[in-house]
């Protein structure tokens, strides 16, 4: 993004960018910026993370905005320029972004601005999303053999597993005959026709 203020003595311009939009707590945001001071004033470039909380209820909206982290650059004299090649701004412990809730929203932005004495700040605001899982933990850069910070050592599991697990013992082998007979249901025995008089059965209908 590029911004510019024009003064009678000359313009003040600012351009800024970041590598990505999503970050997590504890990560550092590298900021790339170019500041050019063609005015007669002494200016100071700064950067800050702003948190915006929005509450929605009963058709009313309340918004709170606060600065949660900031960094300051060196003074830029008249006719001079300054460049930020990845100036670091560390993210403090923050609530993750809440963007899909109908009653509350928590949003973040990175503001890169220039403090100009006696004039309004020249500010560029870049949107941020604060998450919970670092992007580098699952990036393709780890596919070359680097260990992910979220990888789990499962080598202990192989030590506890047998190569050929044995079959469980038979129930009758681990209980007494009395318990076995008590738990095994008695099924009706088939009728032996040799011991009883077997004759055909007829239905009589009157």
How would you summarize the topology of this molecule?
Elements: E1 2-7, E2 10-18, E3 22-24, E4 28-37, E5 44-57, E6 60-72, E7 80-90, E8 104-115, E9 122-131, H1 155-160, H2 171-174, H3 177-183
Parallel strand pairs: 3-9
Antiparallel strand pairs: 1-2, 2-4, 4-7, 5-6, 5-8, 8-9
Domain Arrestin C-terminal-like: 8-135
Protein name: Arrestin domain containing 4
GO biological process, one term: protein transport
Task: Tell me about this structure.
The protein has about 210 residues and is mostly beta strands. It has 3 helices and 9 strands. The chain has helices at about 155-160, 170-175, 175-185; strands at about 1-5, 10-20, 20-25, 30-35, 45-55, 60-70, 80-90, 105-115, 120-130. Strands 3-9-8-5-6 form a 5-stranded mixed sheet, with no helix packed on it. A 4-stranded antiparallel sheet has the order 1-2-4-7, with no helix packed on it. Strand 1 (about 1-5) and strand 2 form a beta hairpin. The radius of gyration is 38 Å and the shape is elongated. The relative contact order is 0.18. Residues about 140-155 have low confidence and may be disordered.
